[in-house]
Prior knowledge:
It is a single chain. By secondary structure, the protein is an all-alpha fold. Helix content is 72%, strand content 0%. It contains 9 helices and no strands. Helix 4 runs parallel beside helix 7 (120-141) and helix 6 (107-115) packs antiparallel against helix 7. The termini are far apart.
Amino acid sequence: MKRKTSSPQRTILIERGTALFHAQGYTATGVREVATAAGLPQGSFTNHFRSKEDFGSEVLAHYVLQLEAIMERTLQDKTRNPFDRIVTYVDEIEQLVRTPDWKVGCLIPDMASEVSAHSEVLRRRLAEIMTRHTAYYAEALGEAFEKETAEDLAGGILAAWHGTLLRMKVERSGEPIARFRRFISRVWPVAGKNLCTK
Length: 198
């Protein structure tokens, strides 16, 4: 049976699934639980998704669409220099993850730490996302560095940022984000001697 590409039921399943993945992780979230959270019978889930892996991929796509809108607004803001673009991006994400217990991080490193060894489908999907997100940073940094240097720095910064968000959840504190800002500001004068200053 051909699946519908879009419907209110499908949308609410993805939205509730995103919230559950944030709250308790991919592995701990069951198909029945997603359907219940959406107020739908379990059969609705199987009408729209072939498997939990398929659903996980769709949740990632939904989440990444929102995340990349922020990246485009900040990391591609050519009115700012590359350093300010990165800091502005961090500022926007901090507002999204700022909760009383700091338990809601980023689905990309969260799912990567859970599924990479168990799901080749999701591992490949996450690798594609990380490659694309590295390119956002590299494009911004390309205004200050040679292409190869910009790409290396972009990969390192993204890895450090993902680690920051994981540590935030472990420490139940926003201090890791503050440390990330200090890290960026301290290494930039050394690495960014040719920084554009628009």
